[in-house]
Q: What sequence folds into this?
């Protein structure tokens, strides 16, 4: 499925020129950066079953600091939430997108692992269907 189809009912923010390509030593994946420069986050339905809020690029550092991601999950960063207690993120060490319980941030609590942004949101949509 194409990412445009998955996000057909999503309320995107405006395009951004804001430049950030890494956080806490984690290099952002190209598919994520390309997507975010066009849309810079937003929130709404993804696919038929999932809901997502994607943080603006300008907010990433503060939000990752607020959740102490560098402490709990080194080589990871978070970029959104499912609105129900799960944080969405990426691991540069594993080259994987993931979701993790916001109340129990640890590698043991990781769900929906995927190699690409599209696959990640497809998997979320399927698992919640």
A:
């Amino acid at each position: 499925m194409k990412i445009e189809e998955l996000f057909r009912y999503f309320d995107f923010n405006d395009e951004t020129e804001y430049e950030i390509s890494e956080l806490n030593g984690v290099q952002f994946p190209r598919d994520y950066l390309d997507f975010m420069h066009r849309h810079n986050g937003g929130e709404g339905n993804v696919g038929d079953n999932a809901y997502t809020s994607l943080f603006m690029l300008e907010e990433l550092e503060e939000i990752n600091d607020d959740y102490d991601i560098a402490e709990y999950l080194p080589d990871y960063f978070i970029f959104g939430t499912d609105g129900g207690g799960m944080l969405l993120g990426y691991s540069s060490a594993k080259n994987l997108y993931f979701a993790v319980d916001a109340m129990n941030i640890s590698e043991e609590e990781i769900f929906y692992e995927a190699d690409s942004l599209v696959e990640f949101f497809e998997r979320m949509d399927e698992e919640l269907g």
User: Anything to note?
Assistant: The chain has one domain: 25-128. The longest helix spans residues 117-128.
